């Protein structure tokens, strides 16, 4: 019977009628009344059996269809989630591989957040170009209890400098900008400068590496030089003590920055007064970057151009004016076009009037050690050096675009791969350390062109092994940030297969509290994920 029901040659009703005809009961004649009753009973039984069989077949068909739909849905959900900024590890395989790294990094970040008293933070991590973790911790808005999410938009402060350097590099590749021409070639109205009675030349290349001699926020040249000498003594301790004190000095530097954010210990080091400079809190709106030059263009140089490193946000404002003239379009339009090409759709100028979805509030500590809202500021005087807003996801895109450009030129066979956003030689130049430079957030590194670069080094066997990485930190009113790129030590290439680029770990952290040192934290997180990546599946 069951075989007959499953066969396509007979329907259920015919099969049951055939079975009834062949049954012994049908051989004996029945009385008329009994025959009528039996016929009705037979029809009822056949109809019921047919309905049950048809119901079961429908369930079977629906089950197969539902299973197929679920399978397709799961596949689509996984594929579409791979590129989104989720607060979960993407994909089961990645969850298994990076779950421990996510847990350890989250615990580290929560400790740092508690230590510095930051209302909120957002972290993003990508491995080999694929985002594996993006999460918000704490609040983007304390007053309204709005939590930080991967979509939270914050001030990225001086990470604006690497963005500007990439745009300048594109202009160089297009033949529109020459880094070695005097800035007056593009901005004739910028005054010619002298140092110690001699004419000197400032070039865009010097500006990119902070060797222009143009002041930062401190106008007093004597104080700048005194502070720089103090910093040098901290950066370069006696040789015998250098290795022993490096770790402790880094902790002291980080601690002093955090105390500064809470208004403690003022006067103990130059950096503690960083946010006491009035220019941080400018409220004047400048119509264009050329107008913003009025802030510093007539001030004397602090150092002779090309001789001494002096970190300067104002110098990048001069660079933006040069780029604007070279490109023949407004600086903000130039940057917006680049952001669109990179897919950084949430990166915009830090303007007060526009409605910017998911924008965070910004905080600092007052003299009593209480968290308060930051005052209103207008950053139109420093778009290039510290005036953009962004998300963790956008910064990961930027870091991976440059890492791809840097690595694609090192392949033996790049057939089948798209070109990088920058030419390999251009990317390598951006990440090449420049002599006579330095960087405060990692004493092992030198400044390049818009980036800090730490080169690979191991002095002794079984001792500290320094990895090559690049980064930039940021500090603005009510915000701190870091973007760090840790390239893979070796690019994996399989014969006959197109290699996957980029290869390495990119980490970014943004927070709505000023004066928070984040480079060391980002480096630890990068190593955590690099270690997880190396574990065989």
From TrEMBL:
Residues 220-274 are annotated as: Disordered. GO terms for biological process: proteolysis; regulation of lipid metabolic process. GO terms for cellular component: mitochondrion. Residues 220-255 have a biased composition (Basic and acidic residues). Residues 108-512 form the Beta-lactamase-related domain. One of its GO terms (molecular function) is peptidase activity. InterPro entries: Beta-lactam-related, Beta-lactam/transpept-like, Mito_Ser_Protease_LACTB. This is Beta-lactamase-related domain-containing protein. The lineage of its organism: Eukaryota, Metazoa, Chordata, Craniata, Vertebrata. The gene is lactb.
